[in-house]
Amino acid sequence: MPRLIRPRSAEPPPAGARNGSAPAAGPAPHPGGRRAGTSGAPGSAPAPAAAPAPAAHPAPGRTPAPAGPPPPRTPLAAPPLAHPLVAPGEWAELARPGVPLDWVAFDVAHGPGTGPDPLYGEAVRRVRENGVPLLGLLDAAYGLRSAAELLADAARYLEWYRVDGFYLNQAPTLRSHAAECRQVVTALRALLGAAPPAATSRARRPVVLAPNVHPCPEYADFADQLVTFNGPWNRYRWSELPEWTAAQPPARFVHFVHTLPAVHLDDALRIADRLGAGAVWLTDRTDRAGVDPWAGLPGYWNKVGRKVRGRR
User: 134: which strand partners?
Assistant: First the structure.
């Protein structure tokens, strides 16, 4: 089993909060430092300048918390939303200029479907007009689907929707599947390289693996990004990292967090920074009663956009 490390500055969870459970009450972890205020009576003479205090030295192995919320630097990566017929407003929001999106994944029918869908074609065209890469979802079934099936689906996405990249959902995680997965990713890149890019696409054409947990480290050698967290806030707030992730570049990982109250948005972005997430999707939608938390936009969509805008 790989060794786990906590992100720097993370406080250890209280008893009972490990294994995904959260404490019943209390402040969120990873709080930002507070800035001392000043006070004085109106009209009073200014106090003489005090000698500078000696610099505080953090405890060994700890990084002091920043003063106030850190500047958000993590863009949004959109998991597949509901069909444009069901969620036209959500797709219109993704197509709005200025939304800080790193990429948008979409899923017609657990893959490209059996033929071009004109509603999806129009929705992805509008998003792409802003230079946002569109990734077609391929269901890898944790390594159970053959390379031939995945590549056939990929070719349909390219023909019907001119995708900019691929999102391998339910990607495998085991070392025994890594070599075959590498071959599939290499073949997908060859398909992307052979296809003419859409006129409004960026040069970047990513292949994202979404095992939704940390796989064995070999997968980081060939994936452009890995979705390594997909779950609720009460697990994310106590996340731990395999030790091998420390050697990876900051943009390697993507986190999807649902059931996140608006009051903890800053906390979640702070954790994402310290966990080295290259992109996130944060929502107050839940998975209760089997509902897909990613099918729509969060209730605080505009607030999320303001927090990450301009940091792409």
Answer: 104
CB-CB contact of 191 with 155 (8 Å): yes
What's the CATH number where 181 sits? 3.20.20.80
| Nearest CA-CA partner of 255 in 196, 301, 210 | 210
- Structure-block tokens of residue 218: 């070999």
Q: What pLDDT is attached to residue 307?
A: 86
Residues in CB range of 53: below 8 A, 6 or more apart: none
What is the pairing mode between strands 241-242 and 253-258? unpaired
Under DSSP, is residue 145 helix (H, G, I), strand (E, B) or coil? coil
| Residue 171 phi, psi (nearest 5) | -65, 150
Nearest by Cα to 120 from 98, 152, 88: 88
Quick check: is 92 in a domain?
Answer: yes
Q: Tell me if the pTM is above 0.85.
A: no
Taking the CA atoms of 21, 30, 12 and 9 in sequence, report the sign of the dihedral they define: positive
Asked if residues 161 and 134 have their Cβ atoms less than 8 Å apart, the reply is yes
